[in-house]
């Protein structure tokens, strides 16, 4: 996608735009079923509050997606975004073997984006990511419209998986 000069609105996917509750069961098993968890992402229903905010932001901003999903999920992620009519935008994903906490990887990418463009806002559900982004000077909209998941929080922060 060709960039323009509008500010960036950066959106997380899981529990911000996509409801993940139906696939939490894969993270509650021992051992966790990561393949099942990510394969089921194609069936995520959209979270209307997040989708509406994303579409609204696209009126003034270039939308960018920033997810902790691994790169191997790119095709299904792009298909999901298109299926629900979300605005086109670059999708930044975790490298396949990068297991650092989401608060580290996401702020790193935000800083890289901010080197060339104004980042108007980050919309994310992860409290640790939101806190780290605010600490780094970014405006954050905390996505509180999905059911919080301890399994997902642990996957993001302790295991660096999403």
Structural class: alpha/beta
H/E series? EHHEHEHEHEH
What coarse outline follows from CA principal-axis ratios? globular
Report the strand count.
5
Tell me the helix content: 25-40%
Write the layout of secondary structure elements.
Elements: E1 8-11, H1 34-39, H2 48-57, E2 62-70, H3 74-83, E3 91-94, H4 102-114, E4 119-124, H5 127-135, E5 140-142, H6 150-157
Parallel strand pairs: 1-2, 1-4, 2-3, 4-5
Helix pairs in contact: 4-5
Q: Keyphrases for this structure?
A:
162 residues, alpha/beta, five-stranded parallel beta sheet, 6 helices, 35% helix, 16% strand, globular
Architecture overview:
- The chain has 162 residues and is of the alpha/beta class.
- β4 (119-124), α5 (127-135) and β5 form a beta-alpha-beta unit.
- A 5-stranded parallel beta sheet has the order 3-2-1-4-5, with helices on both faces.
- The model has no long low-confidence stretch (mean pLDDT 91).
- It contains 6 helices and 5 strands.
- The chain has helices at 34-39, 48-57, 74-83, 102-114, 127-135, 150-157; strands at 8-11, 62-70, 91-94, 119-124, 140-142.
Summarize this, please?
The chain has 162 residues and is α/β, with parallel strands linked by helices. The protein contains six helices and five strands; from the N terminus they run E-H-H-E-H-E-H-E-H-E-H. Strands 3-2-1-4-5 form a five-stranded parallel beta sheet, with helices on both faces.
């Amino acid at each position: 996608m060709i960039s323009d000069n509008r500010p960036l609105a950066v959106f997380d996917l899981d529990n911000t735009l996509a409801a993940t509750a139906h696939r939490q069961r894969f993270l509650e098993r021992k051992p966790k079923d990561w393949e099942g968890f990510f394969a089921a992402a194609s069936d995520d229903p959209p979270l209307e509050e997040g989708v509406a905010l994303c579409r609204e932001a696209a009126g003034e901003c270039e939308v960018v997606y920033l997810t902790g999903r691994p790169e191997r999920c790119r095709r299904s992620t792009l298909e999901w975004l298109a299926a629900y009519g979300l605005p086109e935008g670059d999708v930044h994903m975790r490298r396949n073997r990068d297991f650092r906490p989401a608060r580290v990887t996401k702020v790193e990418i935000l800083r890289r984006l901010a080197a060339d463009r104004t980042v108007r806002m980050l919309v994310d559900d992860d409290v640790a990511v939101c806190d780290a982004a605010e600490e780094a000077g970014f405006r954050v909209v905390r996505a509180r419209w999905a059911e919080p998941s301890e399994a997902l929080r642990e996957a993001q922060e302790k295991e660096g998986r999403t």
